[in-house]
Amino acid sequence: MASTQHALLSPAELAYLHAALSLTPPIRPDGRSPAQFRPLVAETGILPGTNGSARICFADGTEAIVGVKAEVERTRGGYEGEIVEGGGAEEVVTDVNDEEKKGESDWVEMTVEIPGLRDDDATTAFLGAMISEALLADGGFSRRLWINRRFHWKLYLDILLISPPLSYPLPLLSLTTHLALLATRLPRLKSEGDEDPFFDDDWAAARYLYPRNKKDGKTTARPPVTLLVMAVGNNIIFDPAKEELAVADVALAVSIGEDATTAATATGDDASLMMDVDSTTAAAAITSARNLRLLSIRTIDPPSRLTPSGVPNATNTAYGAATTQKQPEARTAEAEAVEGVWRAPRGGAKPLVMAALVHKVLEKGGIADEVLDALHAVDLG
Amino acid sequence: MTDRRRINGPVGATIPLVFEDVEDYEQVATKAARSRAPNAVRKMYLKTGVTPSASGSAYLEIETSGKGGVSGLKLSCTVYGPRSLPRSSPFSPHIILSTHVKYAPFATKQRRGYLRDPAERDLGSHLEAALRGAIIADRWPKSGVDIIVSIIEGDQDRETSKTQGDEAWDIMNALSGCITVASAALADAGIDCVDTVAGGVAALVRDTADSSPSIVVDPIPSEHEKILASCCVAYLPTRNEVTNLWYKGDLPASDMELYTKLVEKGIQASTNANRVLLECLGETVN
Amino acid sequence: MPVTILAPKAMRQDYGQADKQNISDDSDDADSSNGGAELDYAELAKADAEGHTHKRPRIAGGDFEIVTPGEVITDDPQWMRGHGTYVAAGTTSIISSVAGTITRTNKLLSVRPLRARYTPEVGDLVVGRIVEVQAKRWRVDVGATQLASLPLSAINLPGGILRKRTETDELQIRTFFAEGDLLVAEVQQLFQDGGAVLHTRSLKYGKLRNGMFVAVSGMGGGGGVVRSRRQVWTLEAASGGGPIDVVLGVNGYVWISKHVETPEGLVEKTSGITNLDESVSATMYSSQNDRIGPETMREIARIRGVVTALVDNGLRVDEDMVMRGYHEAVEMAMVSSVGADDIYLGGERGEQLAAVLTAV
């Protein structure tokens, strides 16, 4: 959980940060605008021994590497015994319709390795579950791993954080996983039907896990991206740094994906509608008509609840010329909220605030759109 | 082109025939449809103080779908503490929560081991987030509390085949139960809370392949053809605040309405559970 | 555009003068040689044949000589070994134990590591964070290898500077400083193991509030805070920010806060020595922030941006650099598309700032 690695900050710092982030517009410690992400360096295809890989690093030296390995695995026989009914090899059906290509969630195995944390740490489990949950949300991903009725690809996703995290690493890990999956290629299948699979040795002929458009080399469907967003006062802040997260009222991790099939039809419709309009605006409409899917939302336990509260001057025994000793219990006594004194928040968040956070991510031309645009621009080599 | 370098066995046909009982087969075919109204939650039984040796405890049972041989959800929660932290641990101005959620090995169709698997750890962190918002942590500096939830029986229909229903959706119901039972046990242990927190689940389901999706509260995954999205909410009714929200599924992002409605229904389910919780605590006090 | 994704930079190759590589084709070259150092094997073999260890005449050379661990610096017995070196048993040769530059002080030879943690010295002004409270002292993180300690007897107790420490004070130790609190202090004494003892027995020291903290690497490597004449100063911020205090801890911890009237200032107004005592203790252990205007907060964040930009680009952090960087940043914001309120100095803008500063 976020709380286990909470930053040790003094009450005065927390009060200052909270005040600065509650202003309109908020003043972030590193001067970013509320929706601005930290600049990052990204590259893909860095590990030739893998099916797909990517690396992302921040200016502060935090760096993540993801490697994807694929293995052929025999699909466990279903209870219904489909193959038995199917008869022999003569009756091999080659045109299996999409509905039948059902994937299972255990075809993907994901591990997250964070230096300085135990393997069975709650943070690691939480991060792993978050990223794989988004990936498997609709079963559409595991369907890509279907080879034939008897075999499938088993995908191993290994996420490695190079240095101990300086901030909550979820967005970093998710973006790196996204790029690695985009760059993942599987050998071309040469066998047909339900035969034992047999593959083309030529790596150049390997097909992408996320097929690309021949024209511009861009993919239509894309793996999910998880964004971290938090609220302080009336402000919504993206990609928070560690000290910003420490004063969050609420923090959410929102996963979004982009669907291929429906995107194609949607853009097709749009294009036909826009026929008579100026062609440039039509083109713009097509690019913006991205079919985003909301895949998963989780509240991140904000570490702010575990921060030490400040002591107002009025009840501080070490304040003023307090030679007359007050009761030491004064520190624990409940105090009214005093301006300039940090108090750890209690309770949860209003449902309306949470809805606003999600809305901010998803709205048309919103952050999700822009993040995906930026990831589009990464050279996938 | 076949592989000539190896001697391959015959293609296909290696799995022995499995015959199903006619009776079973019919039952699967006429699978139980949801008999409750979309807004109705299942009945639940909650009792506190079931484990005398613990500082606080509670037991929760949720009614089955009515058929014989189907187990409902049975949860037991024990709370130990607040007690002082070990000497080696650093000073904490707040109470330290540690939550453990464990399925009994026999709770689900597939037997589970004794060690907690990642899914159970994940449930533990969700539960922690839900409870942390509810308790007044600075009332108990330098102390810790252990909250242990055992899922004695998972909410699974043993007559449905393995391919039907998905455990990924069952886990939402389990979490909502964990939150409610842990909240009752915390209150039983006398740990200060701002409000009682309870869990609720709502889902967007499709009953037949061609029907339009609808939102139901407290879904049983095996009763529906397909679950499109589901969310579990931990809600504080008097403060109107959510301490934990877990959504997963696949919804078009352009349709915020649908999502908002789903969360609203989740809150409604949680409010229902909370009513039971308050009644139960009232009984204990009397 | 909220996200900037940069392509990775090709590895920079610093070709030495003696290097006879073809520099014109450096993009391909960078890939093939992988940035590794090339050894002149012929020369090595010759040295072996002559029965010498591979050793260059270090002492006679230029100012910046870089040695690596295990490298013989000199075998001339006239030199004395200092930090970062050792003498092998039975010989007189001084061998480097760290990678860094050689410094000579009279006859003392020492090697300054390229990167190191802060090593406290008596009199250093440091910013530290309390990590542990014990019965009669605090343990303070100052970025050194050991936690520094601050005894209860080394602070000014409320109600008069020279008040005697009582048992009540020991019981209430957490009301002065608790875990997480930031403070500015001076190194009073050093232990043999490198641990430092701090004190805050001065009006300039004590708990920090009304501002923001940033940790940068201290000492060595070109970047970071360097020991200088003034570690603490007040500057008049641009665009109505008012006076702002900057504390550059020698240990690389930096505190930037709104300037509050110091007790000295109060003395002039009230001119009473007893009032001085009281006002000292009044603010010394407070964790309540004063009211701070948004303009001031913006300028504080800008200074923080300048400090991080300096460190990211390997420049030293001292009063001169921070002041010049700050004025430059204000001017950069003037011509920025967003306007004077634009205080972002990360990524390319930080590099731009550093380029301007080094160009002068």
TrEMBL record, chain A:
Keywords, ordered alphabetically: Cytoplasm, Exosome, Ribonucleoprotein, Ribosomal protein
Subcellular location field: Cytoplasm; Nucleus, Nucleolus
InterPro entries in the cross-refs: Exosome_comp_Rrp42_subfam (IPR050590), PNPase/RNase_PH_dom_sf (IPR027408), Ribosomal_Su5_D2-typ_SF (IPR020568)
Superkingdom, taxonomy of origin: Eukaryota
GO molecular function: mRNA 3'-UTR AU-rich region binding
Similarity comment: family membership: Belongs to the RNase PH family.
Name of the protein in its database record: Ribosomal RNA-processing protein 42
Automatic annotation (TrEMBL), chain B:
Superkingdom: Eukaryota
GO terms for MF: RNA binding
GO terms, biological process: nuclear mRNA surveillance; poly(A)-dependent snoRNA 3'-end processing; rRNA catabolic process; rRNA processing; U4 snRNA 3'-end processing
A Pfam family: RNase_PH
Cellular localisation: Cytoplasm; Nucleus
Boundaries of every Exoribonuclease phosphorolytic domain copy: 41-191
CDD domains: RNase_PH_MTR3 (cd11371)
Entry keywords, A to Z: Cytoplasm, Exosome, Nucleus, RNA-binding, rRNA processing
GO CC annotation terms, alphabetical: cytoplasmic exosome (RNase complex); nuclear exosome (RNase complex); nucleolus
Primary site of residence: cytoplasm
InterPro entries, A to Z: ExoRNase_PH_dom1 (IPR001247), ExoRNase_PH_dom2_sf (IPR036345), PNPase/RNase_PH_dom_sf (IPR027408), Ribosomal_Su5_D2-typ_SF (IPR020568), RNase_PH (IPR050080)
Family per similarity comment: Belongs to the RNase PH family.
Record protein name field: 3' exoribonuclease family, domain 1-domain-containing protein
Native organism: Podospora didyma
Automatic annotation (TrEMBL), chain C:
Region (Disordered): 1-36
The RRP4 S1 domain, residue ranges: 117-189
Main location: nucleus
GO biological process: CUT catabolic process; exonucleolytic trimming to generate mature 3'-end of 5.8S rRNA from tricistronic rRNA transcript (SSU-rRNA, 5.8S rRNA, LSU-rRNA); nuclear mRNA surveillance; nuclear polyadenylation-dependent rRNA catabolic process; poly(A)-dependent snoRNA 3'-end processing; TRAMP-dependent tRNA surveillance pathway; U4 snRNA 3'-end processing
Entry annotated with the keyword rRNA processing: yes
Subcellular compartments: Nucleus
SUPFAM superfamilies the UniProt entry points to: Eukaryotic type KH-domain (KH-domain type I), Nucleic acid-binding proteins, Ribosomal L27 protein-like
Molecular function terms from GO: RNA binding
GO CC terms: cytoplasmic exosome (RNase complex); nuclear exosome (RNase complex)
Pfam family, one: ECR1_N
Keywords from the named record: Exosome, Nucleus, RNA-binding, rRNA processing
Residue span, Exosome complex component N-terminal domain: 66-105
Record PANTHER family: EXOSOME COMPLEX COMPONENT RRP4, PNAS-3 RELATED
Family, per entry: Belongs to the RRP4 family.
Protein name (record): Exosome complex component N-terminal domain-containing protein
Species name: Podospora didyma
